Amino acid sequence: MGTFRIDCEIEHIRTGKKATVKGLLVGTGAELTWLPQEVLARIGTAIAKKDQQFIMANGQTVTRSIGYVILRAGGFETVDEAVFGQPGDMSIFGSHTLEGFGATVDPRRKKLVAAGPYPAAAARVLAFPEVLAVLIGGDERRRPQRWTTRNCSTESA
C-alpha cells in the first residue's frame, strides 16, 4: 500500500482543548493511533486503560497507556483510543481511527478518501423468489415477512 504522513488535530473529549500532531505515519498496519504523550498530556487526556501490551514491528513487547480523544484529519472526524507514545515511539495513524473516519487510503494520491456507505445488517435477508414475488405482484402468500419491534414477532408485509 505504501506509506505517507498526515497532520491530525486532536481534541480533549470533554474540555475541547486542542492540539495538532504533524506527520502521523499512515499505512503501517498499526491498529491504534499512537500520539506523543506530551501532546496528550498538554490537552489533558486522561489515561483510560493503563499498562496495555503491544507487540512492536521488531517483535518487542512494550507497555503503554491509552486515552480517548477526538481526532480530525483530511476532512474526517471520529472519537477513538489513542496510545500515549513514549520518547522514541513513532507517531502513527492507526487502522481503527481510519475505520472510525469511514475512510480508506488512496495510495496513489497519498491521502485519505471516503470509503463509501457504512455496511449495515439487514433485519431479514430475502431470497430471490420472495423479492421477485413482491416486485411483480405475485401470490400474496409468497410475500416476505417483516420484523416488528413492537411485539418482537413477524407479520405479513
Q: Outline of this structure?
A:
With 157 residues, the protein is mainly β.
Question: How would you describe what is shown here?
Answer:
With 157 residues, this protein is mainly β. The chain has 2 domains: 111 residues, Acid Proteases (Cathepsin D, subunit A, domain 1, Beta Barrel), CATH 2.40.70; 37 residues, no CATH class. The chain is built from 3 helices and 11 strands. The strands form 3 sheets. Strands 1, 2, 3, 4, 5, 6 and 7 form a 7-stranded mixed sheet that branches. The protein has a two-stranded antiparallel sheet with strand order 8-9. Strand 4 and strand 5 form a beta hairpin. The protein is elongated and about 65 Å long. The termini are far apart. The relative contact order is 0.17. About 4% of the residues have low confidence.
Question: What features would you highlight for this structure?
Answer:
Cathepsin D, subunit A, domain 1; 13% helix; two-stranded antiparallel sheet; elongated; mainly beta; 2 domains; 157 residues; 7-stranded mixed sheet
